[in-house]
Design brief:
alpha+beta; Nuclear Transport Factor 2, Chain: A; 6-stranded mixed β-sheet; 5 helices; 6 strands; globular
Amino acid sequence: MSQERVDVVRATFRDALNRDPRLDETWRDASEFYHEDFEYREDSSWPGAGTYRGIEAFRKVASGYAEAFDEMRLEAEEIFDAGDCVVVFVRFWARGHSGTEAEMRQAGIFTVRDGKLASWQVVFDRDEALEAAGLSE
């Protein structure tokens, strides 16, 4: 079961997360990747951090991120099976409208239900994410 959760998260990174969230076609098959009750939680240190419930709410916040940049990508650098959840070390890269590039490393704590992402909690501190998932020493 744990490997299945890892595979779901890996497939979502590969097949869904780097599509342009502003386009309708990006969301036509969203229910294949995201559970209908999907919840996205931003790191509490993010200005205006929020929790977004449902695919449509996630679409709105993801579209807002995309509006801020000309281009952006999420790369799963490492994936850890944590039993009830999956921790991913994420490399976020973006190019702004001015052409300036930025990069940030963070973590995501994902839960999977019915073969789909049920939640994604962004955690800027990777050690904190491992600890929250019970993977720290």
